[in-house]
Amino acid sequence: METLVHCKLVCKSWRAIIQDDKFWKLYRQKDSNLVYIYMDLTKKNANNLSKDKFRLVCCVDGVFLEKCDLNGKLRLRNPVTKHSLPLPDGLGYKLMRMFYLPTTGNYKIVCGKTGGGFRLLTVGIDLHWRAIEADDKGVLFQTSKKEALLSLSDVKVDDVYFLIKPILDNIAPGSCFADVFCLEVETETLEYTRFPKTFSQAVEPFSWNHKLALADLEKGTELHLWILEDYKKSGKWSEMKILLPSTLFREFSWKLENLRPYSSSNVKDDPRLWFCRADHCVLEYNIKTGQEETTHVPPAGKSLLFSYFPTLSNLNGALIPPAEEEKWLRIKDGARNHVLSCFTELFALCGRFTY
């Protein structure tokens, strides 16, 4: 990555090549370029709040969305270039997700405000958070006192944001329905469907073959999936059951919170599931062959928060600390001098040959 930083500062044509999306698609094909972000489980952060303390909310293509819980301030930050971009405050907002839209080249942030419904922010364009017209009454976050104890859950699937809101069943005490709100981030259209089953415990949402899936463990032996096939028209759901080997759980009890599914890949040809286990290990399970593999083990006393591929993309209007700016200027001059010396040696070498 440091070499790319130097090359990017040589000239405009080199910078254009390195910033091209095709270049970064090739870069992301190598797992060795993946960077992991951990949370320290040995430290108690409750008393460490300050106005300068930002925490990582989510990451999209190497760009961090960070929030200060004390004053609600938000910012985007590229940890490689050290650029940061202040955003409108997000105090009282929750369940934040960030999207990158290749068609426009913009970042969009979606969140929910208690008692106020969905809010949207197009980075670099909007000066304030916007309410979505389809949710102008904020019905999404209007809950009874009992339902307020139930936790909302959300997941992003491609450019669609899904939010699952549990609804208490008055007929069967202890059971819940689930309202599913589907927001197309690019068009800002909001759809709604209801999960057709009742459940007694929280279901886990995740991305399944570019679709929303809700997972539950039935009788401690099978992973039961409900897949939302079409959220626009029919709200059709399909069901699937996967028998899990006991080795995936190790010494932990058979509960969904001990083995949480969070992603899938190529379900038709090579179906695989990724789980995060209670010991914070990341597991890959091949549904077709039944083989499992531990793909990542965090260091002792740490929990995996995010993994991402670094990027050198610029944030329009971003700020850079003065010390970092001086450092970059030195790197820029050094990179140009290095390339110039290389070309000088090359031309001198070529001049030794006669034709």
UniProtKB/TrEMBL annotation:
Source species: Oldenlandia corymbosa var. corymbosa
Among Pfam families, the record links this protein to: F-box-like (PF12937), FBA_3 (PF08268)
Q: What is this protein called?
A: OLC1v1019413C1
Coiled coil (residue ranges): none
Taxonomy, superkingdom: Eukaryota
Q: Which residues form the F-box associated beta-propeller type domain?
A: 48-251
Q: Indicate the segments forming the F-box domain, all copies.
A: 3-25
Among Gene3D superfamilies, the record links this protein to: 1.20.1280.50
Q: Which PANTHER family match?
A: BNAA05G37150D PROTEIN-RELATED, F-BOX ASSOCIATED DOMAIN-CONTAINING PROTEIN
